[in-house]
Amino acid sequence: MSQTQNISTRNALARLSLGLSMLAYGTAKLSRNPNCNKGRMMVALGAMKAAEGTVKYCPLKAMMQQQGMMGHTAGPEVSKLMKDFAGQGMSVTT
């Protein structure tokens, strides 16, 4: 199974820096209190975000693109619905 990069370089750098910050914060929390669930969660999420930034691949984004849930893949259907919605709800009656 091959994977292609699905996030930009800027997005990858943001994920990497946020992930490493979360990892450091979680590690600091766990060093003070080893039973801290918040620290464990921060370490796990931070490691996942740092890995996503390193390999420039986000599995959640890939699943959403595959299912057609991203805004740029929906295209005309979304713009038609927005026009219909804006046309219906803007009239004021007294």
UniProtKB/TrEMBL annotation:
Pfam families: YgaP-like_TM (PF11127). This is YgaP-like transmembrane domain. Residues 4-64 form the Inner membrane protein YgaP-like transmembrane domain.
